[in-house]
Design a protein that fits this description.
A six-stranded mixed beta sheet has the order 5-6-7-3-8-9, sandwiched between helices. It has about 250 residues and is an alpha/beta fold. A hairpin with a 2-residue loop joins β10 and β11. The longest helix is centred in the last third of the chain and has 16 residues. It binds adenosine-5'-triphosphate. Adenosine-5'-triphosphate binds next to α1. It comes from Alteribacillus iranensis. This is Manganese/zinc/iron transport system ATP-binding protein. Belongs to the ABC transporter superfamily.
Length: about 250
């Protein structure tokens, strides 16, 4: 067995007295594309934040390629939930993407022409080059999401965490983002994505982590994405609907 890209052991987290995560343990292999699913309030965003030291863990440990976050943070990319970002911050799309390079540039140094060129290329890859000089507050939600993806890409990380990158984007943006995520996986990168659309889990992800305060199930999508695990995770808040000859799952939260 290869060294785990991510090893989470017995992690618990809370907001004041409200325990949100309890005894979360799992390992993720390099080169996998994992969907994190669970109902609203299950702790999915908190899990990402705790792994990235943006929220304190009460217990447990998290390592990436056997190293703590602090030692390896330049190799980790994060796309936060769109709603958690201050989009009024006065900056343009190209500068947001260039920020993804600050680990390499150094915070007090100015980006070189080559850095700007790399940022521009990442924007281009996301089909956003014509918006390079546009203030981020003047982009649509899907365009903002593409800019954040470009920022993560330019970083050329080994591990990526993305919090609902597909929320509220149109079908074309969804396909563009999924193409990029599958390319990252093909290059051997490890990607974990918080995801809400249960219908696309089997198409999009090779692994799935069912979370509801604790890990309900985790593993290869073909083995783990079952009615039983969906019921254990969502309780009564899912429905099976007959579409043609198949039953398809819908979340009704
Ligand atoms: N900053 C905060 N202060 C207090 N409670 C919080 C805070 N952030 C989240 N919570 C609570 O922690 C729980 C888990 O929230 P979290 O955002 O991690 O869930 P989630 O699974 O990502 O939910 P969703 O699918 O709705 O985005 C919820 O009950 C939420 O109300």
């Amino acid at each position: 067995m290869k060294d785990a890209a991510i090893h989470v052991e017995n992690v618990s987290a809370s907001y004041r007295k409200n325990t949100v995560l309890e005894g979360v343990t799992f390992q993720v292999q390099p080169g996998s594309l994992t969907g994190i699913v669970g109902p609203n309030g299950a702790g999915k965003s908190t899990l990402l934040k705790t792994m990235l030291c943006l929220h304190p863990a009460l217990t447990g440990s998290v390592t990436f390629f056997n190293q703590p976050f602090k030692k390896i943070k330049k190799r980790i990319g994060y796309v936060p939930q769109r709603g958690s970002v201050d989009w009024d911050f006065p900056t343009n799309a190209l500068d947001v993407v260039t920020m993804g390079l600050y680990g390499q540039i150094g915070w007090l140094k100015r980006p070189s022409k080559e850095h700007k060129q790399r940022a521009w290329e990442a924007l281009k890859k996301m089909g956003m080059e014509e918006f390079a000089n546009r203030q981020i507050s003047q982009l649509s939600g899907g365009q903002q999401q593409r800019v954040f993806l470009a920022r993560a890409l330019v970083q050329d990380a080994d591990i990526y965490f993305m919090d609902e990158p597909l929320a509220g984007v149109d079908a074309a943006t969804e396909q563009a983002i999924m193409t990029i995520l599958k390319e990252l996986k093909m290059k051997g990168k490890t990607v974990m994505v918080v995801h809400h659309d249960l219908q696309t889990v089997t198409d999009y992800f090779d692994h799935v982590l069912f979370l509801n305060g604790k890990v309900i199930a985790h593993g290869n999508t073909n083995h783990v994405f079952t009615k039983e695990n969906l019921a254990k995770t969502y309780g009564g808040s899912i429905q099976w609907v007959k579409e043609g000859s198949q039953h398809v799952v819908h979340s009704i939260e």
